[in-house]
Design brief:
The chain has three helices and no strands. It has 105 residues and is mostly helical. It has a domain of 64 residues.
Length: 105
């Protein structure tokens, strides 16, 4: 119960800090960068896997090998992992300047 209360309190503090960050109008636009990040990471999950699946299925049928289907799906998964890693790294960099604004430095 205490943990839940602590998490709620931390979320309230984070939201109040976000509202005070420069560039957000009255604290109402804080969700836009988060949703943009969510859409980008979700597209990194869906697009490479779907392309790998259908590409592997096509190549597997034309050549007649299930191994190539598996290779294409694994390549899609690898591209997914690298893309998500890249997006998280960029998102962390974009948050670093905002740390100074919320800490009052």
């Amino acid at each position: 119960m205490r943990l839940l209360f602590l998490l709620i309190k931390m979320e309230e503090n984070n939201n109040s800090n976000i509202a005070n960050i420069e560039g957000y109008k009255d604290g109402k636009d804080w969700w836009k960068p988060v949703m943009f990040f969510y859409v980008k990471t979700t597209s990194w999950i869906i697009i490479p896997l779907v392309v790998g699946y259908f590409g592997g299925k096509y190549v597997g049928k034309t050549i007649g090998s299930q191994v190539l289907f598996f290779v294409f799906v694994m390549l899609g998964f690898l591209v997914t992992c690298l893309g998500i890693y890249r997006e998280i790294k960029q998102y962390k960099k974009s948050l670093e300047p905002n740390k100074n604004l919320t800490n009052g430095k």
